[in-house]
Automatic annotation (TrEMBL):
Identification of the protein by name: U8 snoRNA-decapping enzyme
Family: Belongs to the Nudix hydrolase family. NUDT16 subfamily.
Swiss-Prot/TrEMBL keywords: Hydrolase, Nucleotide metabolism, RNA-binding
Biological process, per Gene Ontology: mRNA catabolic process; nucleotide metabolic process; sno(s)RNA catabolic process
Keyword field contains RNA-binding: yes
PANTHER family recorded: NUDIX T16 FAMILY MEMBER, U8 SNORNA-DECAPPING ENZYME
Pfam families reported for this sequence: Nudt16-like (PF22327)
Required cofactor(s): Co(2+)
Reaction(s) catalysed (UniProt annotation): a 5'-end (N(7)-methyl 5'-triphosphoguanosine)-ribonucleoside in mRNA + H2O = N(7)-methyl-GDP + a 5'-end phospho-ribonucleoside in mRNA + 2 H(+); IDP + H2O = IMP + phosphate + H(+); dIDP + H2O = dIMP + phosphate + H(+)
Residue intervals of the Nudix hydrolase domain: 14-176
Organism: Sulfuricurvum kujiense (strain ATCC BAA-921 / DSM 16994 / JCM 11577 / YK-1)
Gene Ontology terms for molecular function: 5'-(N(7)-methylguanosine 5'-triphospho)-[mRNA] hydrolase activity; IDP phosphatase activity; phosphodiesterase decapping endonuclease activity; snoRNA binding
Keyword Aminoacyl-tRNA synthetase set for record: no
EC number of the protein: 3.6.1.64
Amino acid sequence: MKTQRVPFGQTSPHKKNAVFLAIYVDAISPWKYFKDDMQHFKCPALIMIDRWDGRMGFPGGTVNEGETLLEALVREIKEEIGITIKPEKVHPIASHENRIVTHFYGLKVLEAEFLHIYYHILNNFSRSILLHAYEEGDNSHFMSEITGIKIVPLLQHENKGINRFIENAFAGATREDLLVLLKEIFGIEI
């Protein structure tokens, strides 16, 4: 079965449902400390994760029985990247169906919030690595499911940037979700 877009929030009683979150910013200065004209350039950006299986994705996961989509999203984001999100701050972006039904949400933040969230995730990731090293463990999914975190600047530049990034290996419907985000939220056509 080919991945297809379905109405947002449409669940299937015969398939697992999963929720994912794009944390994004409309404008960030990723090259702020360069010594040329690039230091003044701003572009949209988002946070993505590196998964244990070598593919990239957005933080999130499977909806448990009896959970609403938003309850599952709050739980999964806390488990996967160690932050607590407020359901009223997220917005629906797209749902896709293949072997499971995925529901993709967005969380738009300001540049300072974006960087704070990113560094908070990095701090949680570092803490988890240390706890694993000393065999103390923790309740996060760092190391077991997530092997890295990245900021992805959303710009096209001379056959570089997001138009090349989209060629990477992505988990599940991540590529489809990313293309919808680019087109419908940022007006970027790939």
